[in-house]
Amino acid sequence: MTAAPMSRPDRRRALGTAALLLPAYGWLLVTVFLPLGAMVVFSFLKTTPIGGSKPLVFTTHNYLAFIERPYLVDVAWTSLRLGFWTTLLCALIGLPAALALARATRGRFRQVLFLLTVLPFWTNGLVRTFSWTMLLREGGILDDALHLVWPSAGSIGLLYTFPAIVIGLVHAYLPYMILTCYLAVSSIEDGLIDAARSLGARGPAVFLTVILPLALPGLVSGAILIFVPVIGSFMEPRILGGRIGVTMGTVIEDQFTQAYNWPLGAALSFTMLGVVLVIFALFSSVLRGRLMPAAA
Amino acid sequence: MARVDRRQFTRLGAAALAAGVTGSWTPSARAAAKTITVLNWQGYGTDEAFGLKAFTEATGTAVKHDYYNSEPEMLTKLRTNPGVYDVVLVNSARDSQAQAENLIDPVDLAGVPNAAGLAPSFKTHPNITIDGKTYGVPWVWGMNALAVRRGKVSGVDSYAALADPAYKGRVALFDDAVTEIAVAALLTGQSINDPSDMKAIGDKLKSFKDDVKLTWSSEDEWNKAFAGGAFDVSVFWSGAVARAIHLHDQPVEFVIPKEGAIGWLDNLCIPASSTNKEAGLAFINTMIDPKFYVQWATGSGAPASANNAAMDMLPADDLNRRIHKPEYLSKLQFMGALPDERRQAFNDLWEEVKAFYAH
Amino acid sequence: MLDGVDARFEAGRLTSLLGPSGSGKTTLLRVIGGFVPPDAGRVLIGSADVTDVALWKRNIGMVFQSYALFPHMSVAQNVAYGLRRRGLRGAAVRAEVARALELVQLTGFDARRPKQLSGGQQQRVALARAVVTKPRVLLLDEPLSALDRRLRQEMQIELRRIQRESGLTTVFVTHDQEEALALSDRVAILDKGRILQEGAPADIYEHPKTVFAARFLGDVNLFTGPVTAGGVEAAGALIRTTTPMPPRGTTATLAVRPEKIDLVPPGAPVPPGNNIEAVLMEVVYAGAMSTFLLSAPGGIPLKVFSQNRTATHPEPGTRLRLAWSPEQTMLLEA
User: Fold this and answer.
1) What is the pLDDT of residue B25?
2) Topology of domain C219-332, per CATH?
3) What is the distance of C-alpha B311 from the center of its chain?
């Protein structure tokens, strides 16, 4: 059975829609999918194929990287730990901040607070991260402040430690969580809180049974926005982590800038992508399982 | 691999420029012999404004520049743009690779007047001499060895200090596979360009673990961390030490350990496909002119010149001159050509060592 | 804001708080509920002083104007919410929820989500949720205002039934006088933070104390003029009432409801009692009855409701005679 042919106005409308979508999706295609596609091809090559008259040699060797270089497992685990801690801290700080913004402030005051929240986005990432080094290092600003108050304390050298990297990452990515949670929380009507209280719920119960479930979409989208870039991050680990700042991000970056081994870098990237997708699949089925019976 | 000057200056964003300029040249777009194109790191001497002005006034030839951010990129540009470039800066360790692909021409040093002042050992350096022919004009050189905090560290004369418990947590390493493996090679008495026992090198590097506080990858990063007191002993570049003292007043000393130091030599070459080889050679001649060098070194700062006459023209107390004494040349092992597989092996080993440090 | 309110709500009865926006009726409701503490005075439920008792402990049931159903919970979970807060679990909860859903005639809707329900169904869920915990007081904040006319009328009947069956003391806030009259055992009229008048619906409808109350509770015809013996001079006639009048010489306002007025057909004998002549301006036909808009001498606008016994009406411009009894003429304060 053939479909009925489109009438003229329908066809024009379809073309119009296509014309409107074309710039955005065309852009996406050219700047995202084509390079990614090239990278997929690269990951199966033996050596970087730019220039040179050497013939292309295909291999799946690079995808065995985690088996051949067991130290990569530790490195990947560090990346995942960074992702986990950063996301957790952003949630713990971000949700209360979003709640305060949405429910306890209004008008000019709220606008000012919003501006302050997105301030990290306005600063250059490198400058921002370097300024953390000044705060965190031994003899840095934090150390001096501590000694003002408590002169005999030992010096706190937070720089070049795991917490230092987390601090830098939380600073950079917190605005995402605040914004996504704000969107979710601001759609909670006031009446719901009153209703819950009138039915006998106290503060913590109101939070756990009403606010948190309704803020959950915001937390989830914030978590995705934060977890994925963080496990691939290399700037903060390099600058704030010193010797221990070795993550999948830094290893992959090394392959592209120092070692000039693009195939390995590409293969490692896609392997990490696979790990992330598995994590999300697990997490979302756990979430779905918890939300359905939703015993309040 | 890369060195201080290049890394520092390329961070100023040459990438966009490189992408835009490449491929936009067609031979017909250029006036014959009135313009030459130089391929180099950004801000690395050949594009000094005063030098270009003097050259154009003297010869009537204009100079255009194109930049690269890594040595592989430089090779790629040569391969994919025949006829575009007339002068190219090549790390002498890459000369044989470039020559094997017929990317660069041999140079007759007799035709370069200022080459008379070049240090003899550079003129005949194995890196640039292939099949008896010289493939580039030695230009600038430097050493990678140890930099220590003056006043706090004394009596260091060996790379073994990097594993010395006295400096636990006070060491910074250069995040570069070739350099670090060279350090371990020197410590284990092996050739830095062709070590026979990679396992010994790996073990030696891993033995630094307790001492290492951080790794640095740019001169700027080193200066910030050193000024903040993060470390006292590090692997560093000679020219960068001179700059740290001269420009930033850092209390640092350059030490050449008894095992020797790692040397590097940059040379200016003529691409085989160039159509303005005479003009290119004239430009190179200007670049090794002592007067140009002195103005460059005392103005913006430069590595050591391969031209002894140029070094002699520096003021006696010039740091660059004091650190880069010609007698050191005999204690250096120069970075040389590395086959791709070996370079890959170096990179893999260094990546493994860094991961070892982290856990 | 409330201004010296002293209100009493009979146990087991439905009392309406009726008034325009800003009259303070919702504020009063929220004070009773415990959402807002009063600046002065006490709130007592039964004999217990609950002024200082926190909202969550007060055991009141509240139905909000927007229903405020928890969107992330099913109907059953919404209804069960109050029970679970009190620690009930399992079979006991399910039984109570089933009973509450049966009361509001939504049995079988357990698994639905609020957004799958119609407005009327959401309203009933909100009601079930409020009553399932057997609160001491049931508070309703304009719960029917979002429904269309037919649904509202049905829900009014439902609400009445549920209130009678559960026997809960109910306070109902509305701005719709018809609703208040239909549902309530008692009505309190509020304006500008004060309670103007309180009483059974028929009482305050038939005997409003003020012009405001009279106007708010329905339509009314007003006659203002100097007081004479047993009445007031207005509209070119003497309007008489059986209510005791203030002293002669003062100005007073008398009023009569539109449905109490007869239109005397021309030529028919004039009934005893009040009667005036007026010019018919317009007839508004509404199927079962018609509204006659007339103009009396002195420009006083009059309104008469009349059942449509016949299908014919006088033409606009006709002079008609209006008659009504003095017993049904009310004396109003300004």
Assistant:
1) 45
2) OB fold (Dihydrolipoamide Acetyltransferase, E2P) (2.40.50)
3) 17
Give A139→chain C minimum CA distance, Å: 51
CATH 1.10.3720.10 is right for the domain spanning C14-208: no
Neighbouring C-beta atoms of residue B35, cutoff 10 Å: 16
The Cα–Cα gap between C185 and C46 comes to 18
| Of B117, B142, B54, B143, the residue nearest B313 (C-alpha) | B117
Domain of A120?
71-291
* Contacts for C47 with CB less than 8 Å, ≥ 6 apart: none
From A206, which residue of chain C is nearest by alpha-carbon distance? C85
Q: Are C167 and C174 in contact (CB under 8 A)?
A: no
- Asked if the C-beta of C71 comes within 8 angstroms of chain A's C-beta atoms, the answer is yes
| Rg for chain A, CA atoms, rounded | 25
> For residue A246, what are its two tokens?
């070795």
Q: Determine contact, residues B355/B215, Cβ cutoff 8 Å.
A: no
Contact B347 A75 (CB under 8 A): no
Express each pLDDT in B89-105 by its tens digit.
Answer: 999 999 998 998 899 99
Lowest mean pLDDT among A250-254, B237-241, B299-303, C215-219: B299-303
Query: What class does CATH assign to B4-118+131-139+266-313?
Result: alpha beta
- What is the interface pTM, i.e. ipTM, of the complex? 0.81
- Through-space distance between the first and last CA atoms of chain A, rounded to whole angstroms: 51
Q: Are strands C169-174 and C60-63 parallel, antiparallel or unpaired?
A: unpaired
SS3 for B93? Answer: helix
Are the beta carbons of A137 and B79 separated by less than 8 Å?
no
User: What is the CATH topology of the domain spanning B142-262+337-358?
Assistant: D-Maltodextrin-Binding Protein; domain 2 (3.40.190)
CA-nearest residue to A294 within chain C is C73
Contact B180, B174 (CB under 8 A): yes
* Chains C and A touch, contact meaning at least 3 pairs of CB atoms under 8 angstroms apart: yes
Quick one: angle between helices A107-117 and A162-186, nearest 10? 150
Tell me the β-bridge partners of A132. none
pLDDT single digits (tens) C227-277: 888 888 888 888 888 888 888 888 889 999 999 999 888 788 888 888 898
> Three-state SS for B98?
helix
